[in-house]
Write a structure and sequence with these properties.
This protein is mainly alpha-helical. Helix content is 68%, strand content 0%. The protein contains twelve helices and no strands. The protein is flat, with a radius of gyration of 24 Å.
């Protein structure tokens, strides 16, 4: 009986110790998060807090890094870029999909670049691909392929640097779309009508610019059902350029 009570007491102590550790761990992570997210924290302190937070394993730590990355605050340093880079190294597709929501023309170029680089680290889900395509569609149809800040800059070397960075970011995003081809085609089908009688011009643009042979079956299906005859030559040209064989068309 005495041994039974001893074992019970030991179990209770272990449970209490485990609970205390979990609470302590959570409080430590929250303290690091608050340091990193505070605009009053100097860069060195914020960066150190982010790196220490990254050392923790588990969803809670990743979620806090993501919250730092997407926070709508005007920091004068690149702490959010650091949070994005470290999140990308977590190999968490769900976290990457959240980061991809930062792909908006009004978000500063540095953060968009950091996101584009992070997307090279892991799987880009359909939600992630949707964010990339939505961003690229806005540039394609509405905002032109330039940074709005260029209108305020007259120095040619600075303009050239920004244009180069912008171009490299778009190239990385295209790489992510190609590497995650099945998800890209799925979004082009579900959202942009590829494979339907009325494929959007943007869907055809994406297939052409990425040389996306995986899209051949959907492209052929659109050709067969096409409602707008003005798209016929473009789709036939794409089928030829992509070398879509008879097997691809079924």
């Amino acid at each position: 009986m005495k041994l039974g009570w001893t074992a019970l007491a030991a179990t209770i102590l272990v449970l209490l110790a485990t609970s205390a550790f979990i609470v302590f761990r959570a409080s430590q992570m929250l303290r690091l998060f608050e340091t990193a997210i505070s605009p009053s924290s100097v860069t060195a302190d914020a960066d150190e807090a982010i790196k220490k937070l990254d050392a923790y394993h588990g969803k809670r730590a990743t979620d806090l890094l993501v919250r730092i990355a997407i926070a709508d605050r005007e920091f004068v340093d690149d702490r959010q870029d650091l949070a994005i880079r470290l999140t990308g190294e977590k190999n968490d597709p769900s976290a990457l999909a959240t980061l991809a929501s930062l792909l908006q023309p009004h978000i500063e170029l540095g953060r968009r670049e950091a996101v584009a680089k992070a997307l090279q680290k892991s799987i880009c889900t359909t939600e992630c691909v949707l964010s990339i395509l939505h961003y690229e569609e806005r540039l394609w149809c509405c905002h032109s392929d330039q940074e709005s800040v260029l209108a305020l800059i007259s120095d040619q070397s600075t303009r050239s640097y920004i244009e180069k960075e912008h171009g490299e970011m778009l190239a990385l995003l295209d790489t992510a779309l190609v590497r995650n081809g099945p998800s890209t085609v799925q979004v082009l089908r579900d959202v942009y009508g590829l494979g339907s009688p009325s494929p959007s011009p943007f869907a055809l643009h994406v297939v052409a610019s990425l040389h996306l042979r995986r899209a051949c079956p959907a492209l052929a299906k659109s050709e067969y059902q096409l409602l707008d005859s003005s798209q016929k030559d473009e789709i036939e040209g794409l089928l030829k350029d992509l070398n879509c064989t008879g097997d691809n068309k079924h």
